[in-house]
Amino acid sequence: MKRAIIKTTHLCKSFSIGKEKLDIINNMNLEIYEGDFTIIMGSSGAGKSTLLYAISTMDQYSQGKVELLGKDITSFNENQIAKIRKNDMAFIFQGINLLPDMTLFENVSFNGYSPSKSKKSVNQKAQLLLKKLGLEKDVYKYPSEVSGGQKQRTAIARALINEPKIIFADEPTGALNSSMGMVVLDILTQLNNEGQSIVMVTHDLKAASRGNRILYLKDGRIDGELSLDHLGEGSLKEREEVVYKFLNEKNW
């Protein structure tokens, strides 16, 4: 039986616009499981990114409870939140957000430095991660000197430096062309096959087909769910056809 690593109970997120209250996440009960590649989809305004940020400590929610890795984070203070972000999770965004004045190597290694680790061991790990992601010839280049795909692969290496239990990704291929996007998706798929838990928001069918569980949001609620576990490592075309049929039924 799979272990729930994220659990929400009656989760709500709302905004006030003048005298009106806009519910973005509406009384959501959800479990996300260890080892899964969970995809969050839905039409524009459905609450996809809002949900991702709420369950990953990146944004506050209005009501309800979030349990992350067995800990109720509802009442966590800033220091506790910072610790769980540093030690247990990582983020990959569409905007990539590499530091422009640091080399690719420095962007990755800097994120791993801590009093509990030797600088040498972190540097060695950064080199290994960059090599694993095909960037061994680019480690001393700056972000302005490499392609969007190379930047995103660097962002993935940076995300992995602290061995996170969960990777949260928000449209990680959204700023890439199709070939670069496929490279990034191949990397995320490989990481998941190695046991990495991933939660990803996407609007792209090809990206969604890499997951094993798809959650479809509508008006701040879970309007449907699709499991791809039965397909195993079947062909991408077969997976895409199943996902397309599911999304079509949702009028996506």
UniProtKB/TrEMBL annotation:
Annotated InterPro entries: AAA+_ATPase, ABC_transporter-like_ATP-bd, MacB-like_ATP-bd, P-loop_NTPase
Stretches assigned to the ABC transporter domain: 6-244
Keyword set includes ATP-binding: yes
Coiled-coil annotated residue ranges, if any: none
Cited Gene3D superfamilies: P-loop containing nucleotide triphosphate hydrolases
Domain of life according to the entry: Bacteria
GO molecular function, one term: ATP binding
Descriptive protein name: ABC transporter ATP-binding protein
Species annotation: Solibacillus palustris
Record lineage: Bacteria, Bacillati, Bacillota, Bacilli, Bacillales
